[in-house]
């Protein structure tokens, strides 16, 4: 059963900065790009990179995520030996614990990793939009003779203090690590994607768990310990598209960038590195005589009788006659009734927006706050929801929310 490298995917995040979108949903299960969920990206990267064994560590609101992953068949991860495994916290003879931090989550699953006796372990984040070849990353790790490697991206210097930063020499060897420093010494931001030699990772996980002062976190504890001990640590430069969609604005921006693949760097329409997802099983979409669609993604099961411009509509969305949708992300099963205006916003799943209601507005200077409607919300006829509103409860007919 030995595997050269297995993946451990951290998918237990609450995603609190997504507010209404993650009240009842784990962040990796948040819909993205018309037909996907965020977790589709690391899972597809794994299978495209030749990794056939993935442990998915879940914790917060896991029901939808667990159901979506199923047996891993959409990503070709329904394997007899290996495949995909959902790994929630569980009761042990010594008691039970929630995952206390990123390092502790991996520590609690040492028995799972040892089943496959890997030489390398890649640790992934379940809440990023990124198309990356992990086999190229592993090749770099081997060539450097590394014990630990981290994927990094250059960020603008004025934004560097928002990230964990790797300081390197001319050979990409890591000489220092800064966690969100006020005075950055580097602009190489950690992507939170690591490759470890398994024997090294196991040693440091056990030591970290034994330290009562530790926060059991890779960035705060494990990586500084590796540096302290002079381990062979290297930074792998990644130059493709990568975005942490941890805020409403970044999630909206990433969805809008899907509609401009020639300039944004994210292309979901190419065949040589597909992003796989679970099929909704709905019928094809239909654009009626009164329907107009401009530069938008309209997925299966949609019915369009209104005007849709520069927007993403997930499966089963209904847009009635006279409704106007612009610069919007509208998630599955939502109904937008006659005459409604939905602009510059994110609308979650199974929402009803009543006749002549107004949700969001186009910013006058090209930038502005994104209105957000949580799943299952009913926006009454003629109601008005302002451009910065965050709605997670029903809004009565004619009511204003600014």
From TrEMBL:
Keywords: ATP-binding, Carbohydrate metabolism, Glycogen biosynthesis, Glycogen metabolism, Nucleotide-binding, Nucleotidyltransferase, Transferase. Residues 290-376 form the Glucose-1-phosphate adenylyltransferase/Bifunctional protein GlmU-like C-terminal hexapeptide domain. Residues 7-259 form the Nucleotidyl transferase domain. It catalyses: alpha-D-glucose 1-phosphate + ATP + H(+) = ADP-alpha-D-glucose + diphosphate. One of its GO terms (biological process) is glycogen biosynthetic process. InterPro entries: ADP-Glc_PPase (IPR011831), ADP_Glu_pyroP_CS (IPR005836), GlgC_bac (IPR023049), GlmU/GlgC-like_hexapep (IPR056818), NTP_transferase_dom (IPR005835), Nucleotide-diphossugar_trans (IPR029044), Trimer_LpxA-like_sf (IPR011004). Alpha-D-glucose 1-phosphate binds at residues 99, 164, 179-180, 190. SUPFAM superfamilies: Nucleotide-diphospho-sugar transferases, Trimeric LpxA-like enzymes. Pathway: Glycan biosynthesis; glycogen biosynthesis. It is an enzyme of class 2 (transferase). The record marks 59, 98 as: Could play a key role in the communication between the regulatory and the substrate sites. GO terms for molecular function: ATP binding; glucose-1-phosphate adenylyltransferase activity. Pfam families: Hexapep_GlmU, NTP_transferase. Its EC number is 2.7.7.27. HAMAP family: GlgC (MF_00624). Belongs to the bacterial/plant glucose-1-phosphate adenylyltransferase family. Involved in the biosynthesis of ADP-glucose, a building block required for the elongation reactions to produce glycogen. Catalyzes the reaction between ATP and alpha-D-glucose 1-phosphate (G1P) to produce pyrophosphate and ADP-Glc. Homotetramer. This is Glucose-1-phosphate adenylyltransferase. The gene is glgC.
